[in-house]
Amino acid sequence: MAVYAIGDVQGCYNELQKLLDKIEFNPANDRLWFAGDLVNRGPDSLTTLRFVKGLGKTAITVLGNHDLHLLALSQGNFKHRSKDQTLAPILAAKDRDELLDWLRRCPLMHHDKKLGFALIHAGLPPQWDLNTALKRAGEVEKVLRGDGYNYYCTHLYGNNPGHWSEALQGMDRLRFITNCFTRLRYCTIGGEVALGEKGPPGSQSAGYLPWFAVPGRASLATRIIFGHWSTLGFHQAENTWALDSGCLWGGKLTALKLSSSKPPKAIQVSCPGYQIKQGASFPLVW
After folding, report:
1. Over the chain, what HEC string results?
2. Residue 241: inside a domain, yes or no?
3. Could you give the C-alpha distances from 248 to 35, 49, 257, in angstroms and in order?
4. How far apart are CA 217 and CA 211, in angstroms?
5. What is the pLDDT at residue 78?
6. Assigned domain for 283 exists
7. What is the per-residue pLDDT across 88-114, written as a single tens digit (0 to 9) for each?
8. Which residues have C-beta within 8 Å of that of residue 116, sequence separation ≥ 6?
9. 169: domain range?
10. Is beta strand 209-210 parallel, antiparallel or unpaired with respect to 186-187?
């Protein structure tokens, strides 16, 4: 059985199919890990969501910020609704409720002990080791799957609090956890997150480091796969592998073949850059 981790698809369904053809994906034997952001901005989020959901136990998907944005829209939180409305077909689909119910039950973090890899969408603050991160992810997952779902979605957006503390409670606690797992790129050695920093390493404000490069971070011993950071591109450093290689923007869609005993192997397909062709721009507000 082969296991492949795949970077941010964001509705680029045709490129996903090309990538699966290239790796000769066999759903009877192989498994797929999706690093979040299945939807939004690309040309066919609805078909992408239906396809991945239809893979059943063959695929594992962690939630990204764009996936959570879709859930927030479905619950009436229109704070960051984009004018292009690429998510509108999902919200109007006859199987909308089934798709959204499946999505809200996806995890924020996946860890395979046997394979020796963890999967997240964005990053971890330096204070969290693997076990702590899994526990924090579980807190948000419980709310998403329970009676607090609507409240969570309607109070989701925001950059505060900026530091982790065990004393955090309620939505402040849930928002910090969510922001780390789905939005984090840079932070300080002390764990202050900088959610407004979105460029490649070297472009950030003084005092901030890529989350994976913070000296002594507690999760260093864990092999971590993540997406989210298209300006970083495919990147391996500090026991992490970044898979968002900018398919949406004319880059590549990346799969990483995972093994417990061999170095991961990257396979890529080129992407045409739908939004660049259309001349569209998107505010990176969340």
Report:
1. CCEEEECCCCCCHHHHHHHHHHCCCCCCCCEEEECCCCCCCCCCHHHHHHHHHHCHHHEEECCCHHHHHHHHHHCCCCCCCCCCCCCHHHHCCCCHHHHHHHHHCCCCCEEECCCCEEECCCCCCCCCCHHHHHHHHHHHHHHHCCCCHHHHHHCCCCCCCCCCCCCCCHHHHHHHHHHHHHHCCEECCCCCEECCCCCCCCCCCCCCEEHHHCCCCCCCCCCEEECCCCCCCCEEECCEEECCCEHHHCCEEEEEEECCCCCCEEEEEECCCHHHHHCCCCCCCC
2. yes
3. 15, 16, 21
4. 8
5. 66
6. no
7. 999 999 999 999 999 999 999 999 999
8. 223, 260
9. 3-278
10. antiparallel
Residue indicated by tokens 């020796």: 116
The pair phi, psi for residue 225, each rounded to 5°, is -110, 135
161 cis-preceded (ω within 30 degrees of 0): yes
CATH classification at residue 181: 3.60.21.10
The one-letter code for the residue type at 227 is: G
Q: How many residues appear in the chain?
A: 286
Q: Does residue 191 come out as left (phi exceeding 0), alpha (psi in the -120 to 50 range) or beta? A: left
Q: How many domains does the chain have?
A: 1
Q: Which residue has the tokens 């011993």?
A: 221
- Residue 285 inside a domain? The answer is no
Residues 208-235: what's their mean pLDDT?
Answer: 97
Bridge partners (DSSP) of residue 222 are none
